[in-house]
Fold this protein.
Amino acid sequence: MADALPTHLANASHPSADVLHPSEAGATVIAGIELRYLLTLHLVAAGPSTVKELVDVVDRAGFVLAGRPSKVISDALRWEVARGRVVRLGRGSYGARRVPRSTFQRMRQRVASAAPGGSGGCR
């Protein structure tokens, strides 16, 4: 079956493998709930941010994104917008809404355990 594929596709590795820069091969990939929580916590603490600023936040936290960063960020925040914790201010710009204290604490614990060198448990 691989004979039917063009050579450049038959020899291709998994799509997400090409996204990581070689120097980031050992970096921790963040996705899903941990990514959503990291972004929401930043928006609560820092106020409105652009997608570019949010990509920088992920980088500074020691994580990498698997995929096109702007798409991964906007997809993650779409969930939070639907839950009412984040508001889309315009194209590529997001802000935080009210996050209950218990939810905020749960978010902090989840992100801390996902962080490189995190404990993996509650703090």
